[in-house]
Specification:
Structural class: mainly alpha
Radius of gyration: 32 Å
Strand order of the largest sheet: 1-2-3
Number of strands: 12
Largest sheet: 3 strands, parallel
Mean pLDDT: 92
Helix content: 40-55%
Strand content: 5-15%
Shape: elongated
Number of helices: 21
Low-confidence stretches: 1-9
Oligomer: single chain
RNA sequence: GUCCCCAUCGUCUAGCCAGGUCCAGGACACCGGCCUUUCACGCCGGCGACACGAGUUCAAAUCUCGUUGGGGACGCCA
């Protein structure tokens, strides 16, 4: 094989994918999922992933969105090999292709006005007849065309769909064989009367130029595919492999969008609410894909290894979040997966992430990386077992880092208000802690139980009361571990303050 | 209205292509028990689904057809 032939073959067999967001809003989880699948496929096959910003909708595209999307991708750790390219840089190519298609007889100029077309469509709709462009302009004679051109009548360019009984068939990697009769495809517009190209065309022309070999996209693109394949063929370009993925719906089975669902569906939201990027990826990848076994938690390497289009589910999946749910601010499974990573990752790594959230809450102390590093690490390690998101460290975990923390009303009622003399008892407990020669777990527990015994009450009353006063929370790690983490002085101060002032 | 796609526990799903090993497995959620000092920790257990109807077959979650339900596409949006 000659070197050139070899290179050509290599070029042809090269696997290239793209993620083509349109910058009309921040990256949302549906878009992220698409990016993730493309990225995993690329990584698995040692392929090239391209980021292409499809910014030709000038009305809705914004610079903020572009930054937001890139930020989101970066945060998730999704990397690309080429780009970002911008679709708007290639508009002249798209226009050229449209004219080329006219020259080669695959498309034609259509002088019908928008008003005429709208009227025809309206009529069809009210008569309950299927509307399709009636090909008025396909049958124009050469004279009629040049006459209209001379009169400067604006025209669009429509793709000429093959006539007859035939149909277009392609093999989707996920959905299998898809067939669509030519008759069901109307002659679609590829160039507007103002001379600008439409998405269907631009997208194909860009994919041809970028030598995209595999297109992994949402199932909503399935309807476009036959028309796009027609364009590939008319342009004489090789048709890429298509793999359409199921969509992510809300609990009411509506497509998710930022407009109707708000922040919960944006990647940014998860970043701000204490998710670990990998946990989000892990959750998202499971929405519509599964390995051949029961594995649900993956390292990056494992996921890349396990990923395959075969595991894609054809049915749409539901992103199960309930608005205003008292307990779950997003899909419970997402929270559970995040909790898993948060609870099992190396503490040093976690501490680094927690720092950010403590800083935002103004709870950070530089000593946590110096003198108090050991304390900080062991405290994080102690309290993380109940936490699911990083923001928990500054929320329910606030009492470990500040004297100014909220009291959860539920345990207050259950553990404090219920017992008339609790203030007095906890004051006595503070004295016992005070007089301990050394404040350690064993002795603290011993004197607590002794006091309960003397007062003839259950130790649980003292223990729960103390937890509530000292942490403001109903739940936590073993109390005596908690006391050690908070430290004698603070424990005593908090107990005494409560004993003196009650709940202020 | 036309076309395309889909259909297993509340949710994510395994099993379906190559029918029996499935009175359907796992995870999350929920409920109960244990442990315990509490808990959103841990452990153990429970609840809970093949949309419906025909057909093929000795045998169907798995194959076929129909019904119903859901989703998507039908723009001079991307």
């Amino acid at each position: 094989m000659s070197r050139i032939a070899y290179l050509q073959e290599k070029k042809m067999s090269e696997i290239r994918l793209r993620f083509p967001p349109s910058p009309t809003g921040y990256l949302h989880i549906g878009g992220a999922r698409t990016a993730i699948y493309n990225w995993l496929f690329a990584k698995k096959h040692n392929a090239t992933l391209i980021l292409r910003i499809e910014d030709t909708d000038i009305e809705r595209s914004t610079k903020d969105s572009i930054e937001g999307i890139i930020d989101g991708l970066n945060w998730l750790g999704i990397t690309w090999d080429e780009g970002p390219y911008y679709q708007s840089d290639h508009i002249s190519e798209h226009v050229e292709s449209a004219h080329k298609l006219v020259e080669t007889g695959h498309a034609y100029k259509c002088f019908c006005t928008k008003e005429d077309l709208d009227a025809k469509r309206q009529a069809a709709v009210s008569a309950k007849i299927t509307y399709q462009y009636d090909r008025t302009c396909l049958n124009l004679s050469a004279e009629e065309i040049s006459s209209k051109e001379e009169q400067k009548i604006p025209y669009t360019i429509r793709f000429k769909v093959p006539g007859g009984e035939g149909s277009l068939v392609f093999e989707d990697k996920v959905y299998g064989r898809i067939e669509r009769t030519y008759r069901d495809i109307e002659d679609f517009v590829i160039l507007r009367s103002n001379g600008t190209p439409l998405y269907l065309l631009s997208n194909v022309v860009d994919d041809i130029r970028d030598r995209i070999s595999h297109i992994i996209r949402g199932q909503d693109g399935l309807g476009n595919t036959p028309r796009q394949i027609l364009i590939y063929e008319a342009l004489g370009a090789p048709v890429p492999v298509f793999a359409h993925m199921s969509l992510t719906l809300d609990p009411k089975k509506a497509k998710i969008s930022k407009r109707s669902h708000g922040e919960v569906v944006t990647v940014q939201f998860y970043k701000e609410n204490g998710f670990l990027p990998w946990a989000l990826i892990n959750f998202l990848v499971l929405l519509g894909w599964s390995p051949a076994n029961d594995q649900e938690i993956f390292t990056k390497e494992e996921l890349i290894q396990a990923f395959s289009l075969e595991g894609m589910n054809k049915a749409n999946s539901i992103f199960n979040y309930q608005k205003d749910h008292p307990k779950f601010f997003t899909d419970p499974k997402a929270l559970s997966i995040n909790g898993h990573y948060l609870q099992t990752m190396p503490v040093e790594e976690l501490a680094f992430l927690v720092k950010d959230f403590l800083q935002k809450a103004e709870l950070w102390d530089d000593a946590y990386v110096n003198d108090k590093k050991e304390w900080f690490l062991s405290t994080i390690d102690l309290i993380r077992s109940r936490f699911h998101v990083l923001t928990d460290f500054a929320g329910p975990g606030r009492a470990y880092f500040s004297d100014d923390y909220e009291m959860d009303p539920k345990p207050v009622k259950k553990n404090l208000t219920k017992h008339e003399k609790i203030g007095e008892w906890l004051g006595m407990l503070a004295d016992r802690y005070e007089s301990l020669p050394e404040f350690n777990k064993e002795d603290a527990e011993r004197v607590t139980r002794e006091l309960a015994d003397e007062l003839d009450i259950k130790p649980g009353i003292l223990i729960n009361g103390t937890r509530t006063v000292v942490t403001g929370q109903a739940a936590g790690a073993g109390l005596f571990d908690v006391l050690m983490a908070i430290g004698r002085e603070r424990v005593i101060a908090r107990l005494e303050k409560f004993s003196r002032e009650g709940l202020s």
